[in-house]
């Protein structure tokens, strides 16, 4: 089953809204997928696409400075947060 581009964009908007509401805290892929009620394998390419567009920042290290082996955390980029904050106030 194929999902339309419009629906993928809506899901991406849900991801951005979730990360905005939890900012400055970063969230793991699994937590984002659970909150949006989607499969991790479906969410991960959307997260990577948003990262390429410089909307999200991928965090590859844990608080101790060690690289994650199988997990990734995500947060809004500073520019995206500022943009989203300005447009939420309207």
Describe the fold and architecture:
This protein has helices at 5-22, 29-36, 40-52, 78-88, and strands spanning 27-28, 56-59, 73-76. Strands 1-3-2 form a three-stranded antiparallel β-sheet. It contains four helices and three strands; from the N terminus they run H-E-H-H-E-E-H. The chain has one domain: Winged helix-like DNA-binding domain superfamily/Winged helix DNA-binding domain (Arc Repressor Mutant, subunit A), CATH 1.10.10.10. Helices cover 56% and strands 11% of the residues. The radius of gyration is 13 Å and the shape is globular.
Summed up, what is this model?
56% of the residues lie in helices and 11% in strands.
Q: Could you state the CATH homologous superfamily? A: Winged helix-like DNA-binding domain superfamily/Winged helix DNA-binding domain
The residue-averaged pLDDT reads 88
Unreliable spans: none
CATH architecture: Orthogonal Bundle
Helix content: 55-70%
Rg, please? 13 Å
Question: Which H/E pattern describes the elements?
Answer: HEHHEEH
Largest sheet: 3 strands, antiparallel
How many separate domains make up the residues? 1
Beta-strand percentage? 5-15%
| CATH topology descriptor | Arc Repressor Mutant, subunit A
């Amino acid at each position: 089953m194929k999902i339309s581009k419009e629906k993928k964009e809506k899901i991406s908007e849900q991801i951005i809204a979730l990360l905005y509401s939890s900012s400055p805290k970063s969230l793991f892929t699994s937590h984002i997928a659970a909150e949006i009620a989607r499969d991790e394998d479906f969410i991960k390419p959307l997260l990577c696409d948003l990262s390429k567009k410089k909307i999200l920042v991928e965090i590859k290290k844990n608080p101790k400075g060690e690289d994650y082996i199988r997990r990734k955390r995500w947060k809004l980029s500073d520019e995206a947060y500022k943009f989203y904050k300005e447009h939420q106030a309207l």
